[in-house]
Amino acid sequence: MPLSFAAPSSAAVPVLAVDTSQIDETLASLDAPQAAAARSLGFTGALGQAALLLDDAGRPALALAGYGDAKSRERGRFHLAAAAAKLPAGDYALDGGVPEKALASEALGWLLSQYRFTRYKSGAANGARLVAPEGIDAAQIEAMAAGEALTRDLINTPASDMGPEELSAATKALAVEFGARFEEIVGADLLDRNFPMIHAVGRASPRAPRLLDLRWGAAGPQLTLVGKGVCFDTGGLNLKPGSSMGLMKKDMGGAATVLGLARMIMALELPLRLRVLIPAVENSVSGESFRPQDILTARNGLTVEINNTDAEGRLVLADALALAAEEAPDLLVSMATLTGAARVAVGPDLAPFYTDDDGLAAGLSAAGAGAADPVWRMPFHPAYEAIIEPGIADLDNAPAGGFAGSITAALFLRRFTAGARYAHFDIYGWQPAAAPARPKGGAGQGARALLAAVPDALGL
């Protein structure tokens, strides 16, 4: 569903964000009936509260939105979205109370609060539409909302309807929408074109593995995005227990997120050359499954000992990264729902990222804070390189011991980037409990931080 701002209108109901420290002053500024109505509704300015006040004719005249206090606001984001979800249908316009530096993120949160996943069950948005506040880039915020909606829709779709072929169709549709070029390499052709690890991971499924390749833009620096597209992960022969398999429709969350980011970039017509690579597979179980102790040879010639078939994401990414690095892009980024270790380290709300570029890291951290898209830098710790070297082959896809699992996975991927300027995001891609502007389900992470950081990173 489109997530867009309402057209400016004199009929839009003004919305006043109220800090709890200003509640007495705010109520004193209202006429007596409205102040009495706010008090009767128990409005205190606490986060998430909403009160719609009427004029003498019984028409909506003012909406109060609880904005908490500075301390409570530090513990979350998209604070107005919680109030927006409680307002009746109609057009609304912010009329004070939101700091200028927070206007863009609050407006984005309001748009995202309208998101509903309706493919299998109807669920209309609440209809409280916001007029774009003055001083924000409305087109950019709408592009971010549309990109996030695409990411959520792709992740939320179950694997029965979102296998490698369907992910390919979604990528092709995005290419057609923005006049991009699209190519895919399918099945045995992956071997002919030297993508052996993508083929090995996906060959057990009747749904043919493939590499998706989208290109857009004719001039400017090159940004290449690589997204893990494991449409369902059984774990392969190292079969996951049922409790760990239940959310594996989201294992293509990296692919969904780079497609959402690509949509933002193309909609905003950033002056760059964009390439999106997605290895799309289903890690299944059959007589064709790759096995523990197999040794695979990657596109770039490195050999990989398989010590766990459930560490398949880094294998398919490796071939795609090796292809990306052959062009020496100005910036190479991978995004993947890669390791449980990342979740243990930072939880579901932070997107850990790795890069050797200190300037890029600082830009991403600052951009994430400004875009309400929190990210956290993790280290490419050189001392752990030996952990991913098994002795019998160049690399080990699942080192024993369990220490530093996210770091060793990132170090593994870096071996396939040929020294390119590189950043890797180990995302969760899922909102485990509903929060303002973020229903339970698929969620993009890191895309808005990258969108904000890329112009400086590429000198645009």
From TrEMBL:
GO terms for molecular function: manganese ion binding; metalloaminopeptidase activity. Keywords: Aminopeptidase, Hydrolase, Manganese, Protease. InterPro entries: Leucine_aapep/pepB, Macro_dom-like, Peptidase_M17_C, Peptidase_M17_N_1. GO terms for biological process: proteolysis. Pfam families: Peptidase_M17, Peptidase_M17_N_1. Residues 308-315 form the Cytosol aminopeptidase domain. GO terms for cellular component: cytoplasm. PANTHER family: LEUCINE AMINOPEPTIDASE-RELATED (PTHR11963), PEPTIDASE B (PTHR11963:SF20). Belongs to the peptidase M17 family. This is Leucyl aminopeptidase.
